[in-house]
């Protein structure tokens, strides 16, 4: 019987609802508090986000070649509950969410038209184009997926091999020992629920602005809080219905559709877009990115008083950390039966490669349009970032078909990610979760779905893109410190995996249960 873990569920839930109510009753106070908190985060913790992100990359590479890399999640006889292709599709769609569909086109225009002043790059110059694309690689490829991968590995090992509870506190078991079974574990879970709720609200806000821009482009209906509320409700209802259909059925079907849609639109844009320019700019920018990888990863702008890294890199690292904590529960759970090095391939290497290809195609297309007189920066200044997306698509062949298809991708992308993360949020809020009984009740997922949607709508209604960034930054702070702890735990496990591995036989009941569920799809 699954019941609510009151000490885990209520604190983040009440805090989020209280913030939403404060925004309605005293908007000025709400805005002042969130803005001041956000400013403190980006001013004081940017350096720690940068160092932590880089260390996650180093850890993934190190573990891949260490003895831990050959350890199988669940024990030597564990059999995978998902086929490799399905596993990768679900993993990618869970982590990439809808942000890639928005920022892939919009973000390069910010960077090419307003590069960091401290670097002395002239706006809209060839140097700015290379800087813009290499920044996309920094923000969307290697480092982000390392941030996801490390906690996923540690949770999978702790849950299946160390036989620890379904709790984020379990990821710190190599450091804290049995303390994670008491108040300490509950505090960690409650804090991480709060961070993911903010991270998901941030992603929802991005999706809603994206969809609203499309509706405005197609119908002329103004992009305003009422339209955002309608879109938010539609998205929420859809992912709640999907979540109610069961883990393997709902998420597997959505991920398959999502992946095919991703491939389809990427291939189309590459063929009809400036293909040669995309390939050449991507190649040159990749060289710049890898040549200056450490410099870019640790760029804080402090020496020159440049706030660009705070506005962008810190925002992204905070967003990735806020998602990574709870998402690790889901990613770790579905890795059953695979080796740790295969986890690194699926959670780090392949998604990073996909992100690089996506950003090269979509970022290259928008940069080319800006550099050849498309005036996308002017469109963004006048009509908002969402208008840039549809200006780019409108300039391509078959726009009247591509734009509705793109809107479908945005919609399904967030629904897919929300579905899997609602599963994790519901699981960590409930008692009785185990390999034999892995899914939470539907009502707890509904509660979290509605709460996240409400917070997301409030922030975009009052602050739009700045609100999205504030949500990501605030949610990332506690997740950052958990991430550092998890990184230390991974190092301890990697030094002597056998010391922590308690698997003497596979948990056959868990494998059979999830295998049967998979076959039933």
Radius of gyration equals: 22 Å
CATH 2nd-level architecture: Up-down Bundle
* Count of runs of 4 or more consecutive helical residues: 21
Oligomer: single chain
Q: pLDDT under 50 segments (min length 5)?
A: 510-521
Task: State mean pLDDT (0 to 100 scale).
Answer: 88
Secondary-structure-derived class: mainly alpha
Intertermini distance: 25 Å
CATH top-level class? Mainly Alpha
Helix content: over 70%
From the spread of the alpha carbons, the general shape counts as: globular
Number of extended strands: 0
State the order of secondary-structure elements, H for helix, E for strand: HHHHHHHHHHHHHHHHHHHHH
CATH topology group = Amino acid/polyamine transporter I
Task: Characterize the structure shown.
The protein is an all-alpha fold. It has one domain: Amino acid/polyamine transporter I, CATH 1.20.1740. Helix content is 78%, strand content 0%. It contains 21 helices and no strands. The chain has helices at 6-25, 27-44, 46-64, 84-96, 99-113, 126-140, 142-161, 173-176, 183-219, 225-243, 247-272, 275-291, 293-297, 308-333, 340-374, 376-383, 385-394, 399-428, 442-495, 497-500, 508-519. Helix 1 crosses helix 19 (442-495), helix 5 crosses helix 15 and helix 14 crosses helix 19 (442-495). The protein starts with 5 loop residues before the first helix and ends with a helix. The relative contact order is 0.21.
